């Protein structure tokens, strides 16, 4: 690793890191340009472990001497800039002092993912990167095989989603269901029993659902607030709910996903 010092925030070599707080722009710019940003060395390491190709590293001076060993051997430029320059470029104070740009991996099709899966999580219109990152971390840790996304879900490789998931968006296969809510029918045609999560009082308590070990099941959740659309709910096999106490009507979608993944996931015996 040969550090390259940069003192000018307008240096074109830092173009990948420009305006990271502009969520709307970054959500379209990064996928169209074929890269994503990893924040913090642990997430950067996950990207390396996942086989992603690095484009560049951007480090604060105090991070140069404590870079993780697997990052020091990457075949890409390593730029070093003061925290002030990093702030001017990215639009926020880079607390961890370490960013990296990686080429995006090629996404499999939904059909490919489903062929290799027994238990999957399906998300409709989840557009909060924080919630999405937390959901991926729960799905990975609680035994789900993959995540399927409706077309309007946010980008799992967006920096905040990556950070909240601790890089698990790179360890768990995911794909987009291009037709929606037709994608729910695709799940059922592939042999999956689709369980739609809802706070409705007349839904089946999730804890009473019994799944055989080899049974293919898909847990379907909607966006924070509105929940699942009527169309997605109607296309499912069974509506299920988490039993609540103290008059609380529902959980945050990330918390609900964690509970659902624990019930549905294939956990080690």
Walkthrough of the structure:
It is a single chain. The strands form two sheets. This protein has a seven-stranded parallel beta sheet with strand order 8-7-6-11-9-12-10. Strands 1-4-3-5-2 form a five-stranded mixed beta sheet. The radius of gyration is 20 Å and the shape is elongated. Helix 6 packs parallel to helix 10. The chain is 31% helix and 20% strand. The protein folds into two domains: 101 residues, 60s Ribosomal Protein L30, Chain: A, CATH 3.30.1330; 155 residues, SPOUT methyltransferase, trefoil knot domain (Alpha/beta knot, 3-Layer(aba) Sandwich). By secondary structure, the chain is of the alpha/beta class.
Question: Secondary-structure blueprint of this entry?
Answer:
Blueprint: E1 3-5, H1 23-33, E2 35-39, H2 41-49, E3 54-59, H3 69-72, E4 78-80, H4 83-90, E5 98-103, H5 110-115, E6 119-124, H6 129-141, E7 146-149, H7 159-164, E8 174-176, H8 182-189, E9 193-197, E10 204-205, E11 217-222, H9 230-235, E12 238-241, H10 253-264
Parallel strand pairs: 1-4, 3-4, 6-7, 6-11, 7-8, 9-11, 9-12, 10-12
Antiparallel strand pairs: 2-5, 3-5
Helix pairs in contact: 6-10
